[in-house]
Amino acid sequence: MVYKKIGIVLLFCCLFMEFSFAQAVRKVVIDAGHGGKDSGTVARTRKHQHEKVIALAIAKKVGHYIEKNFSDVEVIYTRTKDVYLTLNQRAKVANKADADLFISIHVDAVGSRSVSGASVYVLGLHRSEDNLKVAMRENAVMLQEEDYKTKYAGFDPKDAESYIIFSLMQNQYLNNSMTMASFVDKHLKTKTKRHTKGVKQAGFYVLREVGMPSVLIETGYITNSSDADYLCSATGQDKTAYAIYNAFRDYKSFVENHTTDLGKENMSQEKVTEATIGDDDTYFTIQLAYSGKNLTENDPYFKGLSPIFKYKKGNGYRYTYGRTKSYTKALSLQQEARAKISDAYLVGFHQGELNMASVVRTILNGK
C-alpha cells in the first residue's frame, strides 16, 4: 500500500519539475477560506461567528488596499460571496489567471482556549504534530465532495501517510513563498501588535495545486476569546488586512528589485558530496533544505554540519546531513542537526526513492 501511494506521489511530482523566476508581480489571487456549506471554524463567543465570514471580510479588505495603491496589479478573488468552492476550484482560479502570488486567508482552531496567535504557512512536510493537524483540518473540506478520493487522486486528508507527498515534491516556489510568509509574519506583529507563532510548513492541498508562490495565513485562533473578539471586530479585520497588504507591498518590491547571481560559486569552498543511491540502498538521513542553488558544504546555512549530501532533483537540490542504517543513530543525528537548524527532520531512502523514516525503519527491521 505504501509503495502504491509513493507511485501516485511521484506522478504528481512530475508537474513541478520546471523552474521559473517571476520578474514582476502583476496578478495576485486572494482566497477567502471556506464558504457556503463549509463554515470552517466557529467562535465560542460573538454569537457563533464563522471562519468563512471573517476570512471573506479580511480578504476583501486586503484586495481593496492593493487595488487602491497599485494600479499595475490585478486583484483576483476566489470568492466574493458566501459560496462553497472545492480546493481544486480555488487552485483552478489561480492557475487559469496565471497569477504571480496566491494568498489564502483562514482562522485557526484548537481544543485549548488558551492558545492564541497568527501563523503563516508555506507548502512543505509538517515538522510537528500540530502543523499536521492544522493541515488535516483545512484539507478536510474535500470530504464534503462525492467520490473525493477519485477527484484528488487517492489523497486522503485523514491519513498521515498521504502527506508523504509534501516531502517528495520539488517546490520551485518555496524561496519566494518563504519570503512572502516572512513579510506577513513581520507585519502582523508590528501592525496588529499581537502575538504571532511564526512561519511554518505543512501539507495544505490548495498550496500544492497552485503554480505560483503561495502562503496560507491562519490569522488567529477563533477558539481563543481574545483572538476571536479581535478578528470579529471591524478594527481587527482592518488591521489584519493592512498587515497582509504591507507584506504584499514589501514582497512585490523585493521580487521586482532583488537579483541573485546563481551562476557564481566560490571554488575555494569545499563542495558538497554528490549523493548516489543504489537500487538496494536503504538508510536514514536528515533533510536540511531544498534549494535551486548549488550550495557548498561551507555555506553558512549548514552552520558547520558535516558531512552534507546533495541529491539532484529536477533543477534543484535536496540537502541532507549524515547517513546511517541505525535508527538510534539517526535520531542522534536529527538532534544534532536541530540544534543548529530547527526544522531539520528525519527521512529515509529505499531503492533509490525518498521515504518516510517509519517506512525505512520497518524495511530495515525486516532485513
UniProtKB/TrEMBL annotation:
Xref: InterPro entries: MurNAc-LAA_cat (IPR002508), N-acetylmuramoyl_amidase_3 (IPR050695)
Domain of life: Bacteria
Coiled coil: none
Domain MurNAc-LAA residue range list: 91-249
Enzyme Commission number, as recorded: 3.5.1.28
PANTHER family in UniProt: N-ACETYLMURAMOYL-L-ALANINE AMIDASE, N-ACETYLMURAMOYL-L-ALANINE AMIDASE AMIC
Keyword entries, A-Z: Hydrolase, Signal
Membrane-crossing segments per the record: none
Organism: Balneicella halophila
CDD domains referenced in this protein's UniProt entry, alphabetically: MurNAc-LAA
Entry protein name: N-acetylmuramoyl-L-alanine amidase
GO CC field: outer membrane-bounded periplasmic space
Signal peptide residue numbers: 1-22
Catalytic activity: Hydrolyzes the link between N-acetylmuramoyl residues and L-amino acid residues in certain cell-wall glycopeptides
A GO molecular-function annotation: N-acetylmuramoyl-L-alanine amidase activity
Pfam families in alphabetical order: Amidase_3
GO biological processes: peptidoglycan catabolic process
SUPFAM superfamilies in UniProt: Zn-dependent exopeptidases
